[in-house]
UniProtKB/TrEMBL annotation:
Coiled coil: none annotated. This is THUMP domain-containing protein. InterPro entries: RlmKL-like_Mtase, SAM-dependent_MTases_sf, THUMP_dom. It comes from Anguilla anguilla. One of its GO terms (molecular function) is RNA binding. PANTHER family: THUMP DOMAIN-CONTAINING (PTHR14911), THUMP DOMAIN-CONTAINING PROTEIN 2 (PTHR14911:SF1).
Length: 443
């Protein structure tokens, strides 16, 4: 078993996504994986595909990847812990066969990932409990199904060691904490399947999300988030957001792309990895940031296509109408601060970006809502021959990396966009863009 394409039927997965990035991920799985049964809720995208698991692992707008075990309607509301245990047993655990088959699929996918090479999301990262006994799982699977119900005299595999990561929202959260429901689910799994609870060194983790809308159960396929890129040494802007910004720019082969406030170069790296036939130029006024950017470019082996220089964004040292796309994360003054008064400087900065942008070029900015509102009040509208990130786009998903971006009103961050004509969907850098599990789980 080397890849998921060997299965006769498409496998069901789901990925977590940062708030506002769900539609980017929907477009990406459809374009890259020819996914079917695609659906999304806040923070999650569900899909089925027969593509190689290594290709699934290459998703750029996703946070974490799971094998979907069960997606069901919300649990019936009950008032007692005893009744909740009955509901968990009937609606969450369900049939033993479903769990046995899911465990077998999980192991085969994990094996396929191991055969494909090291986890590209980064070194280590297993966190607390590292699935260190996968070989024992493999041995148990080779002699039969897990759990009870085996005949006398048959070889008995060691029980699966597991832990539960439970996330509870909505009305259930007002009655039970995530830890309490996690304990109830864990006890039910242990009793019905014969698995053994091990919080420190589990064979696998069972992720459960209970809300007023649905009940989702999945098995994580990777120790580290997909968003933890192996080719980025020093992190800055969240890589999923950087990739989404690059996709909005619709970078074509042969394009020249500029990030005039590049910081450590995350946007440049994400765009260059996705668009191998284009060139990229990054600038920053801070030498310490530039050195990190140079280290990142060298570490990612992109020195031939990505160049970084020291310069002020108010005086970009390139000729007018010479770049095809400008993609920039404007400092918010929060997590990544700015020494100058950004609100006062922003009109001049945008004017300089428009000067170097060629006819038909793209301007993609990441701004806080406050800066976007200031820019809308103080700047003239974008020049008609230059396209901003929120204008209409071709319907052909091949026009951009990973497929079409979301509709113009989609917010990349956690708040509605105050400006639709400037092409500046906001996102607070300090916002957690993943679906963060309780502290007892790995990141």
């Amino acid at each position: 078993m080397k890849d998921s394409s060997c299965f006769k039927r498409p496998l069901q997965y789901y990925c977590t996504a940062g708030k506002g990035l769900e539609e980017f991920l929907v477009a990406e799985v459809r374009c890259k994986l020819a996914a079917i049964d695609v659906d999304h809720v806040t923070g999650k995208v569900f899909f089925s595909t027969s593509e190689d698991i290594e290709k699934v692992r290459g998703l750029k707008s996703a946070e974490r990847l799971f094998l979907l075990l069960r997606r069901a309607p919300p649990l019936a509301q009950t008032g007692s812990a005893g009744r909740v245990e009955d509901v968990v047993r009937d609606q969450i655990i369900g049939q033993h066969r479903v769990w046995t088959e899911a465990l077998s699929l999980w192991h085969q996918l994990r094996k396929g990932l191991e055969e494909a090479g090291p986890d590209p999301t980064g070194p280590g990262g297993a966190g607390r409990g590292s699935w260190s006994r996968e070989r024992r799982v493999e041995k148990g699977l080779s002699v039969g199904a897990w759990g009870r119900g085996r005949g006398a005299g048959e070889p008995q595999p060691a029980p699966v060691c597991f832990r539960v990561c439970c996330r509870c929202t909505g009305s259930f959260a007002r009655t039970f904490s995530s830890q309490e429901l996690g304990r109830i689910v864990g006890v039910a799994i242990s009793r019905q399947l014969g698995w053994s609870v091990n919080l420190r060194e589990p064979d696998l983790e069972v992720n459960v999300h209970l809300s007023d809308d649905h009940c989702v159960i999945g098995l994580p396929l990777l120790r580290s988030p997909l968003a933890s890129r192996s080719y980025i040494r020093t992190t800055g802007l969240r890589s999923t957001v950087a990739w989404a910004m690059a996709s909005l720019a619709e970078i074509k082969p042969g394009s020249c792309v500029l990030d005039p406030m590049c910081g450590v170069g995350t946007i440049l790296l994400e765009a260059a990895k996705e668009c191998p036939n284009s060139s990229f130029l990054g600038m920053d006024i801070e030498e310490s940031q530039l050195q990190k950017a140079r280290d990142n470019v060298q570490f990612a082996e992109l020195s031939g296509r990505v160049e970084v220089i020291k310069s002020s964004v108010k005086a970009i040292p390139v000729p007018s109408e010479s770049v095809d796309a400008v993609v920039c994360d404007i400092p918010f003054g929060r997590k990544f601060g700015s020494k100058s008064d950004m609100a006062a400087s922003l009109p001049a900065i945008v004017a300089e970006m428009e000067r170097v942008l060629c006819v038909g070029g793209s301007l993609v900015l990441l701004l806080s809502p406050a800066l976007a509102a200031d820019l809308k009040r103080s700047c003239r509208p974008s020049l008609p021959h230059r396209r901003t990130s929120q204008e209409s786009r071709p319907s052909d998903p091949q026009h951009r990396p990973g497929g079409p971006p979301p509709s113009p009103s989609t917010d990349l961050g956690s708040r509605p966009s105050p400006s639709t004509d400037l092409g500046v969907p906001p996102c607070t850098p300090s916002t957690d863009l993943g679906v963060r599990p309780p502290s007892s789980s790995h990141p």
